[in-house]
Amino acid sequence: MRRRVVITGIGVLAPGGVGTKNFWSLISEGRTATRTLSRFDATPYRSRVAAEVDFLPYEHGLRAQEIRRMDRAAQFAVVVTREAANDSGLELSEIDPHRIGVTIGSAVGATTSLEDEYRVVSDDGSAHLVDRAYATPHLYDYLVPSSFATEVAWSLGAEGPSTVVSTGCTSGIDAVGHAVELIREGSADVMITGATEAPIAPITVACFDAIKATTVHNDDPEHASRPYDSTRNGFVLGEGAAGFVLEEYETAKRRGATIYAEIVGYATRSNAYHMTGLRADGAEMAAAITSALDEAHLNPTDLDYINAHGSGTKQNDRHETAAFKRSLGDHAHHLPVSSIKSMVGHSLGAIGSIEIAASALAIKENVVPPTANLHHQDPELDLDYVPLTARDWKTDRVLTVGSGFGGFQSAMVLATPERSAA
User: Fold this and answer.
1) Cα separation, 267 vs 410, whole angstroms
2) How far apart are CA 16 and CA 51, in angstroms?
3) How far apart are CA 154 and CA 110, in angstroms?
């Protein structure tokens, strides 16, 4: 019999919502956390809007040496996984450490620290031959994203399987999906998982400027992220992290744990088509959705809500709308669909985990978060995108999806344990 995997702990650092409670308040109230980029002078750039996290590491219990050693994204990862571990009520020190694993997702790793350190060793780019004497001794940790999993494992005493998953903007779903499989197959009993990203640096902004993927609503930063709206013109770059404790259902039930949701289905596909382009028919995302539903032994009509990718690019919004219709048939027209990126921006590899947190909390609260800033729905898009205001709704089974550069398409189905099968 396949082991059932549930979420018993959640931690979130999101723009405008530091901590899980504050995050849920933000998205359920339809408030936005996008603003003019402040982490560096963005005047020369095409897009000057971002969703930044107001984060002071000392306030979250990080020691001076940890702060000096870790990239901002690694700090995020440690903070959210500690929050998730505390939230779960598990005494990790009483569990065989070899049965506790770590899986962390990230698309761009320690981009911020790598750029900062290059500026130091090259004297702001003026020196062709860099001077390594000026480099931090922790520079190698910034080069290898695996350091994120290492830091989390050290922090929580996990000595089981430890992995970083990097699949672009689906990393946050794929890392959790991998963690689920490790518990199901018996390689671990508890998984500390999630995803982190701190990409708001000149090199990242320049990359997205080059392909015109980010918004140019610089004059109205609070309303710049507009998924499904006819005035949308790109996504808002964000940062943040979400962490989870996953464990086997029967064990969690016996110890009286709070169970947010069961992860009942997961699948991922690649379109093998284009680095940034998407086919209009949404076939690959539809295939991932169908496979995730099959794994969950659910029919399309069993779903109650879709937490969409909803990046705010015209290409993506059309692609996933087509995917929902292709995989769910007529039921797609009867499901509420919403995008929290309208409020917290697009934090690349982290957003999939942040959206899993939103989905689990939607199940717990029976509330569908809204799509903020959706005033003029694109007439080409004809689903129920829950504009502006949250909706009280029975959300026993939720589909969350992700779409990433490189052609990655991932889908995950969460459910209350009592409603995990049709």
Assistant:
1) 6
2) 8
3) 18
- Has residue 421 been placed in a domain? no
> Residue 281: its pLDDT value, please?
85
> Which range of residues forms the domain containing residue 285?
265-413
Domain of residue 342, CATH code = 3.40.47.10
Kindly report the pTM of this predicted structure. Answer: 0.97
User: Where in 37-94 does DSSP place strands (E)?
Assistant: 49-51
pLDDT score at 419:
64
Sites in the chain below the pLDDT cut of 70: 419-422
Residue 420 inside a domain? The answer is no
pLDDT at res. 276: 72
Rounded to a whole number, what is the largest CA-CA distance in the chain?
Answer: 64
* pLDDT tens-digit series, residues 156-214: 999 999 999 999 999 999 999 999 999 999 999 999 999 999 999 999 999 999 999 99
Which pairs with CB-CB distance under 8 Å and at least 24 residues apart come from 377-381? 377/228, 377/229, 377/230, 378/228, 378/229, 378/230, 378/232, 378/314, 378/317, 379/230, 380/318, 381/228, 381/317, 381/318, 381/321
Task: State phi, psi for 277 to the nearest 5 degrees.
Answer: -85, 155
Q: Based on the fold, state whether residues 295 and 229 are members of the same structural domain.
A: no
- Say if residue 126 is in the same domain as residue 157: yes
Active site residues: 169, 309, 346
How many angstroms separate the CA atoms of 314 and 395, rounded?
28
CB atoms within 10 A of CB 270: 15
CA angle 26, 411, 276 (to 5 degrees): 90
Q: Looking at the structure, do residues 398 and 319 belong to the same domain, yes or no? A: yes
